[in-house]
Design goal:
The protein is mainly α and 181 residues long. It has nine helices and no strands. Helix 1 packs across helix 5, helix 3 runs parallel beside helix 7 and helix 7 packs antiparallel against helix 8. The longest helix is centred in the C-terminal third of the chain and has 21 residues. 27% of the residues are buried.
Length: 181
């Protein structure tokens, strides 16, 4: 029986062909279940690269390029929280936090790469510092909940459109309706 192809890798290959998909992928709340495969490919796991190259009959270099491009475009976006930057869900096991952080830093360590990749390494380091121990993770979760609550309360309702007929009350003045004759 043939091994299933990781859906995240297929998505990464599609993104490489159509970079305009990045905005849509960034807005999706869920990451692929097999995001760890992309992280291992990008980070240099030879066994994973070779196995997937044989499975897909694609060059390893293409898989690395697609995986890295996906991670750069979807995970490392400036507005993402530490979980997303490391390719995690909030309920991820601590071992997964460590694995993802290790492979990402193996790829992006500033001693080995360009300034551009070093900038991504800074995001990885910051996210890792937020989540590396259960105590830090609990503190980060409290901060994240607090930030989200403040952002929710700051939103003001805005009318979708101004009144179309003069004299028709707008959404702002619903309590001051005038009688039309």
């Amino acid at each position: 029986m043939r091994e299933p192809v990781p859906r995240g890798l297929i998505t990464a290959l599609e993104l490489l062909r159509a970079p305009s998909m990045a905005d849509v992928l960034r807005q999706q709340s869920a990451l692929p279940d097999d995001i760890g495969v992309l992280i291992r490919v990008a980070g240099g796991c030879e066994e994973t690269r070779q196995r997937l190259a044989a499975l897909l009959d694609k060059p390893e270099g293409l898989l690395v390029k697609a995986s890295r491009f996906y991670l750069e475009q979807v995970l490392f976006h400036a507005e993402n929280d530490s979980y997303r930057i490391l390719g995690l869900t909030p309920d991820a096991r601590q071992a997964t936090v460590q694995e993802h952080g290790r492979w990402l830093m193996k790829w992006l360590h500033p001693d080995h790469h360009s300034e551009w990749e070093a900038a991504f390494a800074g995001r990885i380091t910051s996210a890792w510092n937020d989540l590396k121990t259960p105590a830090r993770r609990a503190a980060y979760d409290r901060t994240l909940r607090s930030q989200r609550a403040r952002a929710f309360h700051r939103r003001r309702s805005t009318p979708l459109a101004p009144p179309l007929i003069t004299g028709q009350p707008s959404h702002h003045h619903a309590g001051r309706r005038r009688r039309m004759t």
